[in-house]
Write a structure and sequence with these properties.
The complex is a heterodimer of chains A (about 120) and B (about 120). Chain A is an all-beta fold and about 120 residues long. Chain A contains no helices and 12 strands. With about 120 residues, chain B is an all-beta fold. The chains are: A mainly beta (about 120), B mainly beta (about 120). Chains A and B meet through strand 6 and strand 11 of A and strand 4, strand 5 and strand 9 of B.
Amino acid sequence: AQTVTQSQPEMSVQEAETVTLSCTYDTSESDYYLFWYKQPPSRQMILVIRQEAYKQQNATENRFSVNFQKAAKSFSLKISDSQLGDAAMYFCAYRNYGGSQGNLIFGKGTKLSVKP
Amino acid sequence: NAGVMQNPRHLVRRRGQEARLRCSPMKGHSHVYWYRQLPEEGLKFMVYLQKENIIDESGMPKERFSAEFPKEGPSILRIQQVVRGDSAAYFCASSPRDYRGVTEAFFGQGTRLTVV
């Protein structure tokens, strides 16, 4: 069975600085998707970024980028120029390539605080 | 185009009562997924439904929990004879179809169930 591990329960970053959130996963599949979701206090789950395992190029969305290391099964999220609105829980998630869009396996999350 | 709508946002039930959680998927979406988030945990997949069919209920507890997605109306997650351990946030997600593309599921804001 696939698992997703986030080893940092909490992280803190100064406004305008850069922070990296870690995620490792375990799977025997070769094709899959990885996601980072943001959950602010409103509880809304917001997709931040996705990565297809067959793509070697790391995904980027504005200030958010990932470092995808397939051999190491590592998928970290880098947030550049951190803003106060980035404060939230961040969840790493995995989905099999052949699986349905909603059948995701989530890590336990990292709570990110942003200091002004 | 309204997002995934869940109601109620907050639900309080006494032990032994029934809880009914509703989810209206995004317009045009015919696939619904239910997740449970226990305190300090990530989301855990419970069940995947299409209209009038349960596709995957591998994450559903064997007793007291049931889900349906009728031809007309919202999807319902029903918990009978609730216990304190059922206290959690319950999330619904929807997607337009199930194929091997990257189209992600969209999440509602969740229902926080408190059992007293």
